[in-house]
Design goal:
Blueprint (H helix, E strand, L loop, with lengths): L1 E5 L10 H16 L4 E6 L13 E5 L7 H15 L7 E4 L12 E4 L4 H4 L6 H17 L2 E4 L2 H11 L6 E3 L13 H11 L5 E5 L8 H14 L5 E5 L7 H8 L7 E5 L3 H10 L2 E4 L8 H8 L4 E4 L4 H5 L4 E3 L4 H13 L1 H15 L4 H19 L1
Helix pairs in contact: 1-14, 6-9, 7-12, 10-13
């Protein structure tokens, strides 16, 4: 079988959600199935570290696909032309877009429909593209995969897609997110938090991730509980971050907030495992990988009570309304004051996290690939 995989988000030193998803799945599948040929489709020069095995053939399709006009040209013109000589049995499209012009079967991965529920968090150019073409992509795709039962139901309700066409392929967290001993925790605290305990906010500085209400919650916590607790923020400046940075200048507890910017994954894993708790009060997620990262690391998580997050966190997380900063702050206070609750969440978190792994995700993706190819026959 010839399998083409859209790998434009495999970029060295710039791997984020989509990139990790593709890397972890196809690093496994290409090695597990050496009898099949894989064609990795890049839109720029690639790093050889992403050519995981000898049965991968990289193909560069220019120009770079990074804005609405280039999306149409790359997916509908350049991609079909580049694959004429390859004639793959299927194309894996992991980023919510697919080609509307090729006749090759496509497995479309649509992580979530955040653009419908929170259009204000997306640039006008991208919002127009999503609204104009998502229904067409879903119709064109031979099969659809998404990362939670919540997102599957959302796709069905919003676009009236037959549920038999959609597979749930859960995401996961890397194995490097594991507990570390007290000695190494203290070294991390000394390096990043002046030796103090800290809450960790992880995720890009983007309105959807809700850093502003996290800061307000931290302020409430500090007001209610006089402590030397720090707040570490690990995430790159993504989009519409000026308002947060401006407010941070006059933030009462500014000296207790540490902005780390983008952190290499190996370091982030150690920081996560050293946190008192992870804060992830996002407005909307198709999955929410930091929830599992925290649980695997033996750290309690406070997350949102909306979208997929209760499904992923189960009974092993504390939940808050992302619109209500004081409710987030109260959950922080509960963890700080009640060691029994904290220890119980840590124990339950390890069990909950064990339900998700990249090996399981890869197996689910392979089954979806096989279904896509079989139904064409």
């Amino acid at each position: 079988m010839k399998i083409a995989v859209n790998t434009i988000f495999l970029q060295k030193n710039n791997l984020e959600g989509y990139g990790y998803f593709v890397q972890e799945i196809f690093k496994r599948l290409t090695k597990q199935y050496p009898e099949h040929e894989f064609y990795f489709l890049f839109d720029r020069e690639y790093d050889k570290e992403f050519i995981f095995s000898s049965n991968i053939t990289p193909i560069i399709i220019s120009p770079e696909a990074r804005h609405a006009l280039s999306f149409k040209f790359w997916y509908d013109v350049k991609l079909p032309l580049a694959l004429r000589s390859v004639k793959p049995d299927i194309i894996i499209q992991p980023y919510g877009f697919c080609s509307l012009t090729t006749n090759i079967p496509q497995l479309l991965v649509l992580h979530d429909l955040a653009f419908i529920h929170y259009p204000q968090f997306i640039s006008k150019q991208h919002l127009y593209y999503y609204k104009t073409f998502t229904a067409k992509f879903l119709e064109k795709a031979s099969r659809i995969a998404t990362v939670s039962e919540f997102s599957k139901e959302d796709i069905i309700q919003q676009y009236q897609i037959d549920e038999s066409k959609i597979d749930v392929v859960y995401s996961a967290a890397k194995n490097i997110f594991q507990p570390i001993d007290v000695h190494h925790q203290q070294k991390i605290k000394e390096q990043y938090a002046d030796g103090k305990d800290f809450f960790l906010f992880t995720g890009g500085i983007h309105p959807r991730k809700n850093l502003l209400n996290t800061l307000k919650a931290f302020s409430s916590f500090k007001k209610w509980q006089q402590s030397n607790m720090k707040l570490l923020v690990a995430g790159r400046l993504a989009w519409k971050y000026d308002d947060v940075l401006e407010k941070l200048k006059n933030f009462k507890y500014r000296d207790d907030v540490v902005m780390l910017d983008y952190v290499e994954e190996e370091i982030l894993a150690k920081i996560t495992a050293s946190a008192y708790a992870v804060l992830y009060p996002s407005y909307w997620e198709g999955f929410g990988v930091p929830i599992i990262e925290a649980m695997q690391s033996g750290v309690p998580i406070i997350t949102s009570n909306v979208s997929s997050m209760p499904e992923i966190g189960g009974a092993a997380a504390l939940y808050a309304d992302p619109n209500e900063s004081e409710t987030i702050g109260r959950e922080m206070l509960i963890l700080y004051k009640n060691e029994i609750v904290r220890n119980s969440l840590i124990a339950q978190g390890k069990k909950q996290a064990s339900k998700f792994s990249w090996d399981k995700t890869s197996a689910l993706m392979w089954q979806s690939i096989l279904k896509s190819v079989e139904q064409q026959k």
